[in-house]
Amino acid sequence: MRLGSRGSPLALWQTRAIADALQLHHPGLQTEIVIIRTEGDRNRQDPLSVIGGRGVFVREIEKALICGDIDIAVHSMKDMPTEQPPELHFPVVPARGEVRDVYVGRDGQPFTGRRDGPSIGTGSLRRRAQLLAVNERVELREVRGNVDTRLRKMREGEVDGLVLAAAGLIRLGREAEITEYLPMDVMLPAVGQAALGVQTRRGAAVEALLAPLHDAATGWAVTAERAFLAHLSGGCMVPIAAFGECRGERLSLQGLVCSPGGEQVLRHGAEGPCEQAVSLGQELAEVLLASGAGDILRAQRDGA
Ligand SMILES: NCc1[nH]cc(CCC(=O)O)c1CC(=O)O
Predict the structure, then answer these.
(1) Ligand 1 in contact with 101 (CB < 6 A)?
(2) Does the structure's ipTM exceed the value 0.85?
(3) Is 126 found in the same domain as 259?
(4) In the prediction, which pLDDT does 211 show?
(5) Could you tell me which of 68, 160, 232, 260 has the fewest CB atoms within 10 Å of its CB?
(6) Any idea what the CATH number is for the domain that residue 63 is in?
(7) pTM for this entry
(8) Among residues 46, 69, 71, 79, which one is catalytic?
(9) Is 185 known to be catalytic?
(10) C-beta of 167 in contact with ligand 1 (< 6 A)
């Protein structure tokens, strides 16, 4: 089985984890990891908002999947646009780990409760807006590069701190650098954060082999989060966040839309049966639209 992956250390860790899980369930299965360079990997200079965030880390990988160069693709679910080529899908969603974002501070001082305005490296509109909403004095900078590069630049003094996904740091073995886990009420994570997107051609024979990797609770949660995002027609260019969680048969979902400067934060929650994950996400999006999210999203799209 050929598994397509980006070449970053995080992407390779994630793809190896899927290959290992497959071999555990199917002893003797041969796997090969095929590294695919994406536009996001090639273009390290321009901000993501200029090269067009939508799908820049996935398009080439999807092409390889469609033409049969690889059998499955392993992505960070967070980086996947809500729409994908009609012949592709995610047949399984493996269990996700720690979903929260974290603050990594150069001097080890936590972010929450600070009165001064630290300089923080993050290009994510979602993170920028939520940081500004709790501390309008923060100075936001874009620090590009993969997780290791960003940590190095921060340690060298380019910024006082970084906000990153806990999952990425933990996977790279750099959990010890975490200064503070940001509470969900300060920093709601990205749709699909910490989950892996295991993508195949619809109906491919490999789907039977993937079946044991599915985690129903993560699957429902991610389905609701992505339905929420899709209903807002949001990509990664608008400050949108969501977090779904299954407890038994029930699914709870929190969703957030905010203005880029953090002045306006619209946040609501919903709860329902797991089986209704899609409508739960859509209904929560409707609640936010009714409370003014449409204006924020429109202004962001027109003005950006
Ligand atoms: N945007 C890049 C990206 N894609 C997935 C992760 C981390 C793992 C995850 O959230 O699934 C990261 C780094 C980060 O946001 O800190």
Answers:
(1) no
(2) yes
(3) no
(4) 98
(5) 68
(6) 3.40.190.10
(7) 0.94
(8) 79
(9) no
(10) yes
